[in-house]
Design a protein that fits this description.
It is a single chain. By secondary structure, this protein is mainly alpha-helical. 0% of the residues are buried. It contains two helices and no strands. It has one domain. The longest helix has 16 residues. It starts with a helix and ends in a 6-residue tail after the last helix.
Length: 40
Amino acid sequence: VSDEVAEKTMRQWLAYPNFAEKHFAALKAILDEEEPDYRQ
């Protein structure tokens, strides 16, 4: 990967702090609504 691509990717990740946590929370909210039994 070129330095340019690596730097752009880094800037994009820094622009979205806590992305992974927010994404996982959104997935759990969908499961809570559509398949609440997954928690058991």
